[in-house]
Amino acid sequence: MTYPTETPTQSDIWAATADLSTLRQKLLDLFSQLAYQEGDFVLASGLRSSYYVNKMQVTLHPQGALAIGRLLFPLLPVDTQAVAGLTMGADPIVTAVSVVSVYENRPIPALIIRKEAKGYGTRAYIEGPILPEGAKVVVLEDVVTTGQSALKAVDRLKDAGYTVEQVIALVDRKQGGAELYQSAGLKFEALFAIEEIQQRYRELGN
């Protein structure tokens, strides 16, 4: 996708001005047009799939990122003290939510969880502000398949002394992630089920 050089009008900046219902539909269109692909793919989980959701095409899109932040923020419990996710898929998501939280007058810091401990300096697994013991953190994820990535983030946060009770994802592929979180005692919610993206993909004639 290319971006125009002219300055967009106010009506073009839908991610900043649309109501949440319209915003969700616009974000669905972005996922269907930019991220969803059909073919033969191997996923991060090692599973083979006939489709792939290239989520970075949306999470790093200027309007996509803002839409994500605006849509996920209202889903956070009122006592949320931070949002966190496993690098690198969750990096733009937790950042977007944290930035939007400032404009909503409820600043929430973002934490990024490394897959391996940093090999120098503090040798930390978790990057970001140090929170009080027991702080309530919500884990954010891009696309959930088996659920293992977000669960690794949950485990790292709990090891650090934080409280994690919920995972929120952008897309649920419906391949066992929700069941895994339930078995771990975690509440799970996703903005979109994969069937919704696939249906919209076909409606748009891709």
UniProtKB/TrEMBL annotation:
Orotate binds at residues 145, 173. It catalyses: orotidine 5'-phosphate + diphosphate = orotate + 5-phospho-alpha-D-ribose 1-diphosphate. GO terms for molecular function: magnesium ion binding; orotate phosphoribosyltransferase activity. Its cofactor is Mg(2+). SUPFAM superfamilies: PRTase-like. Pathway: Pyrimidine metabolism; UMP biosynthesis via de novo pathway; UMP from orotate: step 1/2. Residues 127-180 form the Phosphoribosyltransferase domain. One of its GO terms (biological process) is 'de novo' UMP biosynthetic process. Pfam families: Pribosyltran. Keywords: Glycosyltransferase, Magnesium, Pyrimidine biosynthesis, Transferase. 5-phospho-alpha-D-ribose 1-diphosphate binds at residues 114-115, 118, 141-149. It is an enzyme of class 2 (transferase). Catalyzes the transfer of a ribosyl phosphate group from 5-phosphoribose 1-diphosphate to orotate, leading to the formation of orotidine monophosphate (OMP). Belongs to the purine/pyrimidine phosphoribosyltransferase family. PyrE subfamily. Homodimer. This is Orotate phosphoribosyltransferase. The gene is pyrE.
